[in-house]
Write a structure and sequence with these properties.
The protein is mainly β and 207 residues long. It has two domains: 24-69, no CATH class; 93-206, GTP cyclohydrolase I, C-terminal domain/NADPH-dependent 7-cyano-7-deazaguanine reductase, N-terminal domain (GTP Cyclohydrolase I, domain 2, 2-Layer Sandwich), CATH 3.30.1130. 12% of the residues lie in helices and 42% in strands. A hairpin with a 2-residue loop joins strand 3 and strand 4 (36-43). The radius of gyration is 37 Å and the shape is rod-shaped. The termini are far apart.
Length: 207
């Protein structure tokens, strides 16, 4: 229950004192007026009371209201295919320029040789959140005339470090570039991506 607080103002000439009630949580601000008694003003929270001095005139009380924070988002809360979310976000991935991958001549082109290359520290960036994604990339291929030169492959992999790209696009783009460089009899690339938000993704693309 809110209690009333009685505030007595000074006596006014020829008239009895006036009693004003101020209920909590109201803030009572007294302002001095030249040649006249003080005036009690109520200012309710969260309004701020600012006293503005005016030359030769009594002080003026100005109220400044707390500004409201408005957050605008072009993204739908539930739909991932709506404009402003994922649509058109990866259009340049198939045609973007990537570092060259070198090869060396394989001297046993007629043999049935299977090669497997594992990259356990692959890193890229989520194009939606900007957070890093980590994965193990496994390249399995049967060479024809050329084998992949590993130093250039390391430099190629580093290209993805700051690139915003989806998991599915990582594997398919790597297959596109590596197969073009070494022209294998067959090739399969698997990306085992670390869990994010309790979901783990494994992507495989085969030539």
């Amino acid at each position: 229950m809110t209690k009333s607080v009685k505030t007595a103002t000074p006596k006014r000439r020829g008239r009895p004192a006036k009693v004003a009630e101020a209920k909590a949580p109201a803030i009572v601000v007294a302002t001095k007026r030249r040649g006249r008694p003080a005036k009690a003003v109520e200012a309710k929270a969260p309004t701020e009371v600012v006293i503005v001095k005016r030359r030769g005139r009594p002080a003026k009380i100005a109220e400044t209201k707390t500004p409201k924070l408005v957050v605008k988002s072009s993204e739908s809360k539930y739909t991932t295919g709506a404009p402003g979310t994922y649509k058109g976000l990866q259009l340049l991935i198939p045609s973007m320029a990537t570092p060259a991958i070198e090869t060396w001549d394989f001297e046993y082109p007629g043999s049935k040789t299977d090669l497997s290359i594992e990259i356990p520290e692959f890193t890229c960036v989520c194009p939606k959140t900007g957070l890093p994604d980590f994965a193990t990339i496994i390249i399995d291929y049967c060479p024809n005339k050329f084998c992949i030169e590993l130093k250039s492959l390391k430099e190629y992999v580093l290209f993805y470090r700051n690139l915003g790209i989806f998991h599915e696009h990582v594997v398919n783009r790597m297959l596109q570039d590596i197969a073009k460089a070494c022209k294998p009899k067959s090739m399969s690339i698997t990306g085992v991506f670390n869990s994010r938000g309790g979901i783990q993704t494994t992507v495989q693309a085969t030539l």
